[in-house]
Amino acid sequence: MTRARVAATVVSAAIVCIVPARDAAAQSYRDVAPIAPPAEERPRASPSRPEPRDDSQDVAIRDLRGIAFVRADAAEPTTQSAADNAITATGAPLLTREFLDGFSADLHKPLTFARLAGIRRAVVQRYRASGQPLVDVYVPEQDVSDGVVKIVIAEFRAGRVIPQGNRYFSDALLMREMPLASGEPIRESDIASGLALLNANPYRRVDVIYAPGAAHDTTDVVLQTEDRFPFRIYGGYNNDGVRDLGRDRILAGFDYGNLFGIDARIGYQMTASNDLLSGNPDIEGRPDRPRYIAHAFNVVAPLPWLDRVELFGVFAESTPRLPDSYGQTGLSSQISFRYDWRLPPLDHAGAWQQQVQLGYDFKRSNNDLEFGGFQVFNANTHIHQFVVAYDLSKSDASGDTHLNASLFASPGYFDSNSNDEAYDAARLGAKPRYQYMQLSAQRDMPLGTSGFSVSARGLFQWTGSTLLPSEELGLGGDATVRGYEPYAAQGDRGWNLQTELRAPAISAGIAAMQPFVFFDAGHVWNRIAEFGEVNDASLASVGAGIRVQVGRFVSFRGTYGFPLKAVVPNGSKAPVGEIFLVIGS
């Protein structure tokens, strides 16, 4: 692998780990979620055996009268079964009559060794297209005086699964996550699913190597592993906070990647405004606490049948320095559960991985301060909502694709803080019974061999309801439209798009740097007009940025964006710069 390829890989891993995930988790949690460590490069394809090659034009059979395909472990066939202009297949259900008829044009003609290799190659490709890359198609020594050729198909089956190189993850753990049964055919979709599971943990990288098995026509699957001690502590800084709670934020957290030795992960992060360290002005009636502090956690645990469960949440205190806040503190909390149900890959090769996610969110809040608002309410609102999401992803040599569709629904009226009065006090017209849908897509792809690459991701939200601030779509800031302050505009409905053109990565030792330019846009609007809100806003910006990754220890990203439109008519179009720094073990 070239140094440029390594640099691009390292920076791509940094992109994944620094940018918050935008799946079926609310934006309040997304802003302060624990940061995963930089991941290793992921293998994109499982190896395959070479295809048959023979360019000889020498004639093997002067008058081809039949072809008999037979499995290597099938009973010895008689060539009579393929006589009388017949092309047959014994014990090979993948070789359908339609496929076999494709060789009819070869009958009653001379068969060269080159054409014989072409027939064998077509059978190999047939098996590979059906997700069985490990197959050997050969012509055994035989008497072909009757014009009939026998072609043998050897389907290699799984022997042993052998972990190698692992130091911090047990053999049993790695073997459990590679869904292969001894003696069964090795299917590419099973290998791809196993690698997706094994490489989901950022503390290891696993490749598959095929080795001859002890038994005839078997192949051992070697899990070549590079891992490290699965614990990380980190600290960082960014200026992605809302203005009234302090743009500057500091953070600290930890992540452990093999809880109880079962491949479970747990993470925690504290995020606070910079006055956590500098102190607060002496304002009568104002609590002596930072303007903003949040504690977030997540736990991800695999189940024996290879699905997984997730638990995550956040508790945040917001104490703005506003003249009319009377020392009030906004309190927000969330606890969420997700069940990730893995589905079989969509294709035989296992390139398209899919899952369904089922979940529940409980949220409690008495303010809208985290989303650029200015209100602390007299009562709490409680959200009880259920989530159903479908996730589809593909990673190959052409790039990475990720699609997601999520439905959020609240039946409402679960408790005394989940009623019309509480919701309407928080936001005019809001009701505890609502639904909204989100559709998102992301595509990252290289531009040939130039080293340049492009990235695009978009999100669309639609609802027929008036939503509370935590469920609205917010625009502005690093996760949506750069060049604007975070949550410059919010709406019940809307969309946003982020695009990047990335230059070739530049590496020096363990450090890699990648400049990029971007264009972002978005539009949000409310179901009904809300007092004191921007009810319809279109945002667009252009800018440039840079990502720097120093091994697994330092991640840095900086952007500088120029708004093309003001949030409100005659409003400011001043450029906004943002930086994100994480230093970890």
UniProtKB/TrEMBL annotation:
Keyword set, alphabetical order: Cell outer membrane, Membrane, Transmembrane, Transmembrane beta strand
GO biological process assignments: protein secretion by the type V secretion system
Domain Polypeptide-transport-associated ShlB-type: 107-155
Biased composition (Basic and acidic residues): 39-57
GO terms of molecular function: protein transmembrane transporter activity
InterPro entries linked: Hemolysn_activator_HlyB_C, Polypept-transport_assoc_ShlB, TPS_OM_transporter
Residue span of region Disordered: 30-57
A Pfam family assignment: ShlB
Residue span, Haemolysin activator HlyB C-terminal domain: 218-547
GO CC terms: type V protein secretion system complex
Xref: PANTHER family: OUTER MEMBRANE TRANSPORTER CDIB, SLR1661 PROTEIN
Name this polypeptide is given: ShlB/FhaC/HecB family hemolysin secretion/activation protein
Organism, as annotated: Caballeronia novacaledonica
